Each structure stands twice: as structure tokens, then as C-alpha cells.
Amino acid sequence: MRTEIFICFQFKPIFLGTVNPRSEMAGFRRVANSQKCVRAGGRHSDLEDVGRDLSHHTFFEMLGNWAFGGEYFKEEACSMAWELLTQVYGIPEDRLWVSYFGGDPKAGLDPDLESRDIWLSLGVPASHVLSFGPQENFWEMGDTGPCGPCTEIHYDLAGRVGAPQLVELWNLVFIQHNREADGSLQPLPQRHVDTGMGLERLVAVLQGTRSTYDTDLFSPLLKAIHQGCGAPPYLGRVGAADEGRTDMAYRVVADHIRTLSICIADGVYPGMSGAPLVLRRILRRAVRFSTEVLRAPPGLLSSLVPIVVETLGDAYPELQKNSAQIASVISEDEAAFLASLQRGRRIIDRTLRRLGPAKLFPAEVAWSLSLSGNLGLPLDLLELMLEEKGVQLDSAGLARLAQEDAQHRSQQAEPVQEQGLQLSVHALGELQRRGVPPTDDSPKYNYSLRPSGSYEFSTCEAQVLQLYTEDGTAVASVGKGQRFGLLLDKTNFYAEQGGQASDRGYLTRVDQEDVLFPVARAQVFGGFILHEAVAPEDLKVGDQVQLHVDEAWRLGCMKKHTATHLLSWALRQALGPGTEQRGSHLNPERLRFDVATQAPLTSQQLRAVEGTVRDAVAQDEPVYMEDVALVHTAHVPGLRCLDEVYPDPVRVVSVGVPVAHALDPGSRAALKTSVELCCGTHLLRTGAIGDLVIVGERQLTRGTTRLLAVTGEQAQQAREGGQNLAQEVE
């Protein structure tokens, strides 16, 4: 399972009702799992707490059990958790405390007395059952989305000696509300259970330690850090007792090297935006504590990678597979940051000498030192360096500079495509309550190749099941000039997914074929395909309509999608069979392909990739497509599939080889041509691609290269333009 950056929530589509009804996930009713989880940014960030106490981590392994659609709820969840902790794990009952949601009058939420009474019925003393408000016991994944009250199980580290010292062990969340964009809370159509218990904290309890850092998950790392640096051994001190913050530095380095190793193994590299920027911040924080507090020589961090692999590699084989790459990335970034850190320290010292006593550190200098400025020092590190010198940062001035920078970036940024009309979780719940079946979109594959080489796309007759206004309100009819959403029993429109742009076109009423309703896009929500259209005349639920896709647009997408498969296969031929796709997007104009790379691609490699694609195009190979049971696609050497949830049955696209032969493990055909799991629309023969030219190549982050390519006449023009330029240069 891949690492979930910030907060793990892979079952969100079930909560929102948007899960593909044909996927395995749609059949989940109760699940127990363990997942890698990184919380270092956004609403649930633990980064600032790591090192300061004995229990917080940026990376941890989350143990969870889930119930969907009311499979079980509060009573069963609490009972199973209590039984596991007290009877299976043997944790003394008098060391456990629980908390529950005490209500929020401002939000109109009553106290969760049901959870309180369940704990009391299980034998938890009333003195160990505590009530807290929304800050502590109402869980939200973000500013919007599924949420609900939670009840937490805490462990008393003091063990009946003095005042209780409680640490959260297990959080049981009851997903029953949805936070709307306007801030209001609405009940979800179905209730769910989402629980999470950190493996590290559980191990600490079971091994009888007061700290997760004293368990065998961390002790090998702490020992290796001591051996590699000039600091005293780790003693587990915190706060004022931790003189020089030595033990804090031990914890920071031990935690961060685990996070770095896990993320890099999963293809997330330190970078300049999003999750890569957070990882860069973590790496630089670890370097600073390693070198400045622990006095470790350069290279300590990368030397710890084998310890992480030894500790976690059996559970996560990708660590063993990528250990050399992990160490290389960490070593390179550490060397670059050390140079910046030394220079930054000199600038700080020089600035402080100019400041009078009790003055704030200038925001302009801090900004130039930060990740947003020139030297790339994380702001929390900068504040910590100043705190150690007894100086405060001009936070107000820094916030002003950050706001100005954000405004500048927004003006320079590319325009973001409109989100379009949406089916909310409530609209989806109403459709499911009424028993409305998901949209049959199999007619999107109804096209054929004429003897002349042109394509014939079939129309589709359908019935209007539901209409929606722009704000998502379900209505029985729409009028002239109105922009609306349209739900049909079936469609031949391709809804945007899998990196392929949505179809566009028009529809007509069966009884009035000279009036066209333009359809701008189609999107899928939980198996229901919503068409976004404009009404030239009235349209009502129950009307029969005929759908026509924009044939030129669709054909352009088909050319680019088949070309994308050939490009992926050609990259594996040039770079090796282990080459991984990181993402793609295509429309009739061009295709974008992100690929995992150890280094920037050379011009020779790019020419080889283009040549491989052009050979396949020149041979005008047939493209075979077939729906097969998902189980039949397992263990096929060379079969390409991305890290995503596939429907069952799943569509297989094979170039030059019939699907049945390609899926025969003995044939090894998938190693010799492009064979992928894909729901997109494709050409029936490769010759229509015409040509392919890579017109752009750049590093998105270390380890990921983005390619831009064009096909057909555009490719020929690009090729001729390049040849003319080369001749002029000569």
C-alpha cells in the first residue's frame, strides 16, 4: 500500500458515495487494515510536535477497523476495541481511560451520551469516562467532507502512581455528518465507523515502555545515531531536563529518517511544492538537528537507511528494492542543505549583531532564508535557531510577506479548469435510496473502423432520469438558457477519468431532433455519469433523448490515449522493465506523461523512445480490447496497471496481441508489447496515430520526469521545425 501523505483516507469514496460500483471497494462492508501514514502538513500535522515529546511521529503505522453503511456502529466498535485491548493484549483495565464527545451547542450538536453509556456498560468506571468538546472529540478530515464525533481510549503511563499521565492509544470515529462548503453540518445518507490506533504507541504499551522511542522499533536507530555522532547517549529527556536539546535531536533524526525512507521508496522525493515540499522540510530539519545539535559528520542520515530497511523491510519490500536510491537522494540533498545552513547561520549571526536588545528578527531577512526565499531553510527551523539565541521572529511581518507572495503566485499561475457541476454526497444518497441504477456507459465503446480507415461512432438513445440546477438541486425540468446537469439511464459519452479528458458533443430530444442541447463535459460520481449541458428549450425528467459525441474530439482523445500506452511501453524498453508511470493526462491537443526516473532523460534515450513508438505506428498493429475478470490479470509478467482501484471485470487493452494470449502467463506477451488495464477509449489500429514527437521534457521533482508529446500532423510539424532549426544551426 502506498503512503498516504498528511492523513490516510483511502476509503473516502465510500463515505462520499463516489466509489465505482463495479470495483472491489464497493463491496466492502467491514475492513481491518494496517497502513503507512505520514502526518506532516495540513489539518492533522504532527511535525511541530515531533521530538518535543515522547509519542509524536511524522510517519507511523496506523492500525484500523472500518464499517461501512451501518454494518456495525458504536456499540460493536467500542466492544471490540475493549475486548482486544483488555482480553487479547492483556492491558489492565484500570490503566485505560476513555473520552467522548460532550456536544457543541454552537453547532447544534448534542453530547454523544450513547458512547458514554456503552463504555459504562462495558465496566469502565465513571471516573475514567471523560467528556470533551469538538476540539478533542469531533473528528474532521478537512474544511469540508465526512466527519463525526469520536471516542478515544487513553493509556495511563503513571500506572496509578500520582496523577494520571494519559496518552491517546485508539481513536474510534463515527462518521455520520458531512461538513458542507458553507460550514454547516448535514447528516450523511449512511453511517460509518473509522478507527485508528498507532502501532508505535501500542508497541510501547505492550513492551512496558513510557515512550515509543524506547521500543524495538526505534532503539536500533537511536543506537546507530549515537555511534555515528559525537553526542552523549540517548536518555529520553524532554523539556527543561533535556539540556542542549540533545534527546530531542535524537528523536527528530530517528523519526525523520523513517519518514524519508518510506516516502522516497513510494516515489515521493523532496521538492518545491505539495507533498515533496513537506518532505524537503523534513529532510532539512533532520540535517540541522543531526549536524548542529548532535555534531554528526555529513552523511549520517544516509548511513541510517540500512537500519530502517532492516527494521521495516520485511513488511514493506519496496524499502529493500529502493534502498540505494533512498540513500543517494538523502545524501545529495543533505550536502546541498549543509552549504545553505552554514551560510544561513552566518547571515543570522551578522543580523543579530546589528539588532539592538529586545528587537524582533527582521521578516525580510527570515523570508530570504526560508524555503520560499533563497537558502531553503524551513521556517520552523529558523524560528528554532532564533529561539535558541533568545530572539523572536517578526511573525506579523513574515505573514505579510507570505500573503504578498501568495498573491503574486496566484497572478502568475495557470488558470485552473472549472470544477463543473457536482453530485453531492446527499444527491448520491438520494439516488441510491430510490434504487436508481448506475449509468450504463458501455455504449461509449460502440464505434467501428470503416473500410476507408475512418471511424463510425454510434449514437445512443436514453431516458432522462434526473435533472440538476447549477447548485446541485434536483429538479423535474429545466428551461431555456439554463445551465444544468443531466443524469441518463445510459450514455455513449466518456466521463473524465484515468487521465483522459471527457467527451463533449450534444443531445437532442427524440421528438425534436433539430434542437441541439450542447454537452460540455461528463463526470462520474459513484457510477452515475453527470452530463453538463445548456438548454436551448425546455427539458424534463422522462424525456427520451439521443446523444451524439463530438467525433473529432473523441478521435483525438483515442489517438492520444493509444499513443500514451505506446509511449509507456517504449519508455520501459529504453529505461528498463521496472520503469514506473507516475501519472498522465491527455486531450486531443497533446498528452502529458510523468515517469519515474533515476536521472534526466538523455537526448539519445528520447530519440530511442520516439523511434519505438513510430515503429509500432508504422506497422499499423491492431489494438485488442476486452473485459475480463480482475483475478485473471494477476501475476501476468509485464502487465501494466497503476496504483488505483480497478472495476471488476476490468478492461484490458493490448497492442498487436489478442487479450487472451496476452493474459496467458506462459506466453510472456505482455513483456513484448503494450498490455495495460484501462477503461479509456482507444484506436482499433495504431496507424491512425501518424507520428509522435516529444516536445517537452522537464524534472517535476527529483525522481520524476514529465514528458509532453504531440501526434499526427502536429508531430510532423514539430519534427520538420526541429530539422529546419538543426540545419540553420549547422
UniProtKB/TrEMBL annotation:
Molecular function GO terms recorded: alanine-tRNA ligase activity; aminoacyl-tRNA deacylase activity; ATP binding; metal ion binding; tRNA binding
PROSITE patterns: AA_TRNA_LIGASE_II_ALA
Coiled coil residues, start to end: none
EC number: 6.1.1.7
NCBIfam families, alphabetized: alaS
HAMAP family reported for this sequence: Ala_tRNA_synth_B
Family membership noted in the UniProt record: Belongs to the class-II aminoacyl-tRNA synthetase family. Alax-L subfamily.
Name of protein: Alanine--tRNA ligase
